[in-house]
Design goal:
The complex is a heterodimer of chains A (362) and B (622). Chain A has 362 residues and is an alpha/beta fold. Chain A has 11 helices and 11 strands. The radius of gyration of chain B is 27 Å and the shape is globular. Classes of the chains: A alpha/beta (362), B alpha/beta (622).
Chain lengths: 362, 622
């Protein structure tokens, strides 16, 4: 397990740098949270979960120990996509769904930057679904934070690709008909090398996941349950309300036995056909109970974990589902260029223009 | 046997066969031999979009036309002097284009009952006298080739496949072409398969010998080298020239080249070419779709690369929103639209110039961009460099409107010296800290504070300390670049973006008019790939004693500053376009000039003879 993922504030002083930042310059001086606050007035609705995410993110950024100018935020369109305006770094508020594409071009051409994509459930999973899945399989060195509020907020309350079936909204007065996406399942199916989930209201957990994402070279995908108090209030109440939280939330810790429920009374085991089921620890065969392994090369177990999370939140795993590093796209691209230069020498423009078949006149 | 040698000043030949017959390769090789010999030349490949349409059918016919001469020429020619027809479909599809007296070299082996029936011939045209107006050479090209290759350890299928080399050898003899290049080419193409290599060389030589020894061909032709400007030449297609222009612009600007692209006909060859050039630091990204291709290019441009995307019409539709974003955030971006016949999928391998209005206006809001169009295959090189100059100097998207004819057509190109290319480094600077101190004297940065001359905003790339800023598609406050919904600010920004593009007119050459005798009352005005057809037509008119002026637009947004004056100087202005009158619409709207439109949208370049007739009609009615 990385030094950074779970050990709180001390990680800022770790001698080892976050894995995604190996080619990013180190800051000369220590930066503080306020250094990452822009002069723009934050304009989300009162009570919006985005405030908590922004605050946690800005507080986390000094831990990157990179100069502010080497941080770039790229977003699409939607409430969450306004976030780059509030972070004092470079940023682009781009087009609906296209942030992963724009970030891919930037990150692939500038390995010295730390590039973060801010997106939402409509932006990333509906209009931008294609770019998201391809960014994940390519494993470009970008960090994707998907704010999932299960609703379209900026367009004033239509159902989204993560809304539960039957959702009554302005555009679905008789209830929505489509089966929702499970963002974590989707990311795992798209060959993502890092997949995590966290919750807007759990600052400590959110910060830990951000650290782990920063410590992953390649595409890191983080789903953040985010409450929209205006159009979908309390959508995540089953996993945030103290009364039900402990029964339903499964906190994943790499290398630790999976335990949840009152006093950690429940665990997970594989059923005969490969799905996971919750069982009482007492009385279960200890060898059948699972210990969480985020590093498994095969994503099948992570996928099975992701299927525990249904629309009604019977069980909702949070934490790092998968963290299986592989070479990132930008590294491979740079290596091809270096290899070509080694083998063929630096490009000679005059020779290129002349080609192989020339003739002289005069 | 010594044969009679006849001197010609120009020749048009067309290789035609089934898509799998290797006609494009034979044409390419003949072109290369002809270029090396020193003729001026232009080519017109014409092939189906299907990789292997049903064999022997009309839709499966692939052809390659080459026009070469002892003087400078402007078009791939109207009517072939020689047609190589490898099967009945190739004969039928091309016969209408042949003038009486043309030579037809037909592969009799393929004129079987079944193949004849496939294209609706009741009897073989080689035998029923219907070709009596032509000089027919009926040769069993397949069987002669197979026989010539009997001693080689190759399959019958491989022997048959070498028939295109036999045809090439025969034509090479007929026009006395140098053969070293083709030998060398076959040597390297089949280096891994020595027996196939030897067989192809033998087939090529068998074709040459067939011409020399049989009595079927009594005359050998000679076309002397053309008088050309001194220099080193090569043959080049439009897509190669465009690729090299982009690489040259990258080198001359010091900006690393980033291409984001999705495969599409007829633009893919630019992606192929640039993907080979990693030693130049070129990054090519084959995206998941057209939107991602342009998005990644814009992302790279934000990061200080030379961001380029390549596509054709349907892809342009998909890129529209991102081009609008690039216009709004005012970053340099090169969009290459290799136009093809539309609408929708249209005819992917056929040429057209009907994307002009889309390039200008195909986005939401007032979204001005610069637009350039190359005139010839080799001109794609210079156009690419000029496009990059404008993009980096004015921080704007620039659309290059090439087309299928320029992309795949080729011509000799006098290779420029690297030092003679524009020094693009001098055209722009990245912003650095404190370049724009705030009004109160404190260091501040205004990402939309414009250069008073160019109206370009600073290009402040991530990684530059002190210039952190956010950009986006939402309207920005003039100067500060922060989000603004202020009505008057929006009006101002709309006008500033337009004024920036309009201002480029002062920084481009005036429109030149070719009016040799100075007496012309009719101007023919074109843009893009019609340059050659219009020029050749004007020459014909002048040779016949007529007076006509020709001008050709490379810059379509903005127009050259003197365009209005040029239009006023002539009684009639004729505008031929391979669309339904898109430039004409712009000219009428902008200059209130009642230009005469001439439009043909056949997926092929104009014929010079056709345009000459149109010009003469206009002259007659002045």
């Amino acid at each position: 397990m990385s030094d950074h993922a779970n050990d709180g504030a001390d990680s800022a002083h770790s001698p080892r740098r976050f894995a995604s930042l190996t080619l990013v310059p180190k800051a000369d001086a220590k930066l503080a949270t306020r250094d990452f606050k822009s002069d723009q007035e934050v304009r989300w609705c009162p009570g919006c979960g985005d405030y908590a995410i922004l605050a946690a993110f800005q507080a986390f950024l000094p831990e990157l120990e990179i100069p502010r100018e080497n941080l770039v935020m790229i977003s699409g369109i939607g409430c969450s996509s306004r976030l780059p305006y509030y972070v004092n770094s470079y940023g682009m508020h781009s087009i609906h769904g296209r942030a992963p594409a724009i970030a891919t071009g930037l990150a692939a051409s500038r390995p010295d930057l730390s590039v973060w994509v801010i997106t939402g459930d409509g932006d990333a999973l509906s209009i931008g679904g294609n770019h998201l899945i391809h960014a994940l399989r390519r494993n470009v060195n970008i960090k994707i934070l998907l704010f999932n509020n299960r609703i379209y907020g900026l367009t004033k309350g239509q159902y989204s690709p993560t809304s539960e079936q039957g959702k009554v909204t302005k555009s679905t007065p008789f209830g929505s008909l489509d089966t929702p996406f499970n963002p974590v399942s989707l990311a795992l199916g798209a060959e993502a090398s890092f997949v995590a989930r966290t919750i807007d209201s759990d600052r400590k957990h959110l910060s830990g996941v951000l650290r782990a994402a920063a410590d992953h070279r390649g595409t890191a995908f983080v789903e953040i349950y985010q409450n929209c108090p205006i159009y979908n209030d309390d959508a995540f109440a089953p996993v945030t309300a103290p009364a039900s939280r402990d029964e339903r939330l499964i906190r994943l810790e790499h290398g630790e036995p999976v335990r949840f429920g009152a006093g950690g009374s429940q665990g997970l085991r594989f059923s005969r056909y490969g799905s996971l089921e919750a069982v009482e620890v007492a009385g279960a065969d200890p060898a059948s109970l699972l210990t969480h392994d985020a590093r498994a090369a095969d994503p099948s177990y992570a996928f099975a974990l992701s299927r525990l999370d249904s629309s009604d939140f019977a069980h909702a795993p949070i934490g790092i589902f998968r963290q299986a590093p592989r070479p990132s796209y930008d590294e491979l691209m740079s290596a091809q260029i270096e290899g070509a230069r080694e083998q063929q020498g630096d490009g000679d423009l005059a020779a290129l223009l002349a080609g192989a078949d020339t003739w002289q006149v005069g | 046997m010594t044969k009679q040698v006849q001197q010609l000043d120009r020749v048009i030949i067309r290789f035609a066969g089934d898509s799998g017959d290797g006609m494009q390769l034979a044409g390419d090789r003949f072109t290369q031999e002809t270029a090396t010999f020193g003729n001026d030349l232009l080519t017109l490949p014409n092939f189906p979009a299907e990789i292997r349409a049903p064999a022997g059918t009309l839709p499966g016919v692939s052809s390659f036309q080459l026009h070469f001469a002892d003087h400078d020429i402007l078009t791939p020619g109207d009517a072939p002097d020689v047609l190589v027809a490898m099967n009945p479909a190739a004969l039928k599809a091309n016969l209408d284009d042949l003038p009486r007296g043309a030579d037809i070299i037909a592969n009799t082996d393929e004129f079987t009952k079944r193949n004849l029936a496939k294209v609706g011939y009741a009897a073989s045209p080689l035998e029923d006298g219907s070709l009596s107006a032509y000089q027919l050479h009926a040769i069993g090209i397949t069987s002669v080739t197979v026989k010539a290759l009997e001693g080689y350890d190759i399959s019958r299928k491989d022997a048959e496949r070498a028939k295109n080399m036999f045809a090439l050898g025969l034509l090479s003899w007929l026009y006395n072409r140098p053969t070293d290049g083709t030998m060398k080419f076959l040597g390297s193409k089949f280096a891994a398969k020595p027996e196939i290599m030897k067989a192809n060389i033998a087939a090529f030589q068998a074709g040459w010998n067939y011409g020399e020894t049989t009595e079927d061909f009594s005359v050998q032709y000679e076309v002397k080298p053309a008088v050309m400007q001194p220099g080193t030449y090569r043959n080049i297609t439009g897509n190669s020239a465009l690729s090299y222009g982009l690489v040259a612009a990258s080198r001359r600007s010091g900006l690393p080249l980033f291409l984001g692209s999705y495969p599409i006909t007829p633009a893919s060859d630019i992606l192929h070419e640039l993907s080979k050039l990693k030693r130049f630091g070129v990054r090519t990204f084959q995206a998941e779709d057209e939107i991602s291709g342009v998005g990644a290019a814009l992302g790279a441009a934000f990061g200080g690369s030379l961001g380029v995307t390549t596509t054709s019409g349907p892809g342009m539709c998909l890129k529209a929103e991102t081009i609008g974003l690039a216009a709004s955030v005012e970053l340099p971006l090169i969009i290459c639209d290799i136009q093809r016949a539309g609408p929708s999928t249209g005819m992917p391998t056929k040429t057209e110039q009907a994307d002009l209005l889309m390039a200008l206006y195909g986005r939401n809001g007032e979204s001005p961009v610069a637009i350039l169009a190359p005139a010839t295959p080799a001109d794609c090189f210079d156009t690419a460099i000029e496009a990059v100059r404008i993009a980096v100097k004015y921080r704007t998207p620039v659309i290059i409107l090439s087309d299928g004819y320029l992309a795949n057509g080729s011509e000799p190109w006098r290779i420029p010296s690297v030092d003679s290319l524009a020094k693009l480094r001098d055209e722009f600077k990245f912003a650095i800290r404190n370049e724009n101190p705030g009004a109160d004297g404190t260091p501040g940065f205004l990402p939309f504070q414009r250069d008073p001359q160019t109206l370009a905003r600073p290009w402040a790339v991530p990684g530059t300390p002190g210039l952190e800023h956010r950009i986006g598609g939402i309207e920005k406050a003039d100067g500060a670049g922060t989000i603004s919904y202020d009505p008057d600010n929006h009006d101002k920004m709309v006008r500033l973006r337009q004024a920036k593009i309009d201002g480029i007119a002062a920084d481009i050459p005036p429109l030149e008019v070719d009016d040799p005798d100075g007496n012309a009352r009719v101007l023919v005005l074109g843009w893009g790939s019609t340059y050659g057809s219009i020029g050749a037509a004007a020459r014909r008119v002048r040779l016949a004693g007529g007076s006509v002026a020709q001008a050709h637009l490379r810059h379509l947004s903005p127009f050259p500053a003197n365009l209005g004056e040029v239009l006023l100087a002539y009684d009639k202005v004729l505008v031929p376009e391979i669309n339904l009158g898109q430039l004409a619409l712009l000219l009428r709207g902008r200059y209130l000039t009642d230009v005469i439109s001439y439009n043909r949208v056949r997926g092929l370049p104009f014929r010079a003879s056709e345009l000459a007739g149109v010009i003469e009609d206009v002259i007659a009615n002045v």
